[in-house]
Amino acid sequence: MKRLELEEIKSRKRPLIVATVASVCWSLLSFNAYSVTFVLLSAIVWLYYYLSRTTLKTLTITRSIDRERLFSGETLTLKYSVEGSRFISLSTTVFPVIRGDREYFVPKESSFVLSSNGKREVETKMTFRRRGKKDLSGLVLASKDPLRFFSHTAKYSAPEFILVLPKVMNIDCFPLRLRELLPGSRSDFELMEDPVDFRGIKEYEREPLNRIHWNASAKIGKLMIKEFGYTAVSNTILYLDLNLSREIFARDVWEKIRIDYEEIAVQLSLSLVRFTYGSGGRIGLVIVGDDVFRLSSLGRNWTDFAEVLADTRGSDQGPQLSEIIEEDLERFDPATTVVIISMYLGEDILPQLLKAKSHCSRVVVIIIPFNPRDPWTKRTISYQMLPRTIESLKRRAALLEEEQIVVRVVGDNQSIQEVLVDLENR
Description:
426 residues; ten-stranded mixed sheet; single chain; 9 helices; 29% helix; elongated; alpha+beta
């Protein structure tokens, strides 16, 4: 719980000044009971003006939040406690001030009457669509007199931030289990299963009959198979490219597209990290943004990746992916799968992909030039036109799939999950 301190008070009293001047002039021109009544009324309103302003200066306002971290789409609850109206009752409206990068918030306002020596509590709930650090520091409290002759606007503040983590996509498959322990020799991960390490059951998908868990199948009513741990782990290096490629000419247009791409690419990256953790594998993340940031899974939980990805940003002048891959070639080994997520790649990346494949077992490239379709929505008519450089890369990379260099472009009429299933089944 934090106490908010007063920053400033702004008052609007022009109607009161006009009414006061009018009543005084009336009294000077025609001194009677009516004019005196209006002068006294003006004096009472001025007294109320100064008392209410003084009251706003002496209020005690505290704020509490139910969490410091949450995923985008989850609900945050803020509670404000207002007390200390010593002299008068005050009609007030509370406006929480929330600031975040690339996101505009309009929290619900709350109006109440704060009685003398009273205390009121206000609760506000909100959700965030985009990841990142959100500033909850500010609060605006507005007060008007019943006759609308004046109003006060007081700003209070106490530093407080929350971190909104990226949303996690539902991913059921990704070809991280496919490994090549030696160059040119394919090995299925299932050959390295540990029959002593029983992990659970899942639905039957054309596995050998000796994998069927007959007791569980009889209880559930459909064929279920046993899942085991592994005597070896997969090793994946995931490159998240958030910067604009130098091959792009219409940079102003693509810079606007890149902002939406960032959110999708970060969500996909975190989802792949979580999927790898659930599969018992190891994963390293290389973020190519304003700076190059590297994160290893050793000694970390997948939520540590979420915290880093929550505040990651790209730029139009940052490091280039091809240069980073060139520097990292010696980090690869024959048991490594290299996964690249980017918005725009052309033929210029092919030499680096070939070099990477010569050092690792597999290279998977996912290009997301447009907003993909949500998995729960229906297909529509697609009018997408890929840039010629991406079309050329896609066409030439199709010839390299036998060499385990797989390139997929996510269309505007495809979902991310459909592309991942296609990768798993190829």
